[in-house]
Amino acid sequence: MTDTKEASEKVVRDFLGSWEGRSLEAICSGFADDAVYHNVPVEPINGIAGIRAVFQGFLDAFSDAKLDIVRLAAEPGLVLAERIDYFTMNDGRKVELPVTGVFEVENGKITRFSDYFDLADFESQSGLKL
């Protein structure tokens, strides 16, 4: 399979949009089994099992999530997405976090996902420690 610019962009847009549906299966469906997920301020997570566990933790902590794309640039196998992520915590608190994600796509699956954001800003708004 050839990872065209359009195909790479679609994989990433589908992943980002899937958070609103809150289905772990849908959220994880775009990842390769050996993918790496790196919230850059903390240690990377290697492999889909670890990624699933982290994403389940987010779903457990948030009653609502919307990952809003501000700007997106794509080329074959690489997508950069500047976003504002909006989360509603289970206790009703709102989190609004500027984020830039870098996605590597191979054979139609995300193989690396790195998010760059202010860790202290996220932790102070959410009350979570990553």
TrEMBL record:
Pfam families to which the protein is assigned, alphabetical: LEH
An annotated Gene Ontology molecular function: hydrolase activity
GO annotation, biological process: polyketide metabolic process
SUPFAM superfamilies, sorted: NTF2-like
Taxonomy, superkingdom: Bacteria
Keywords: Hydrolase
Domain spans labelled Limonene-1,2-epoxide hydrolase: 9-123
Entry-linked InterPro entries: Cyclase_SnoaL-like (IPR009959), LEH (IPR013100), NTF2-like_dom_sf (IPR032710)
Protein name as annotated: Limonene-1,2-epoxide hydrolase
Organism: Mycobacterium intermedium
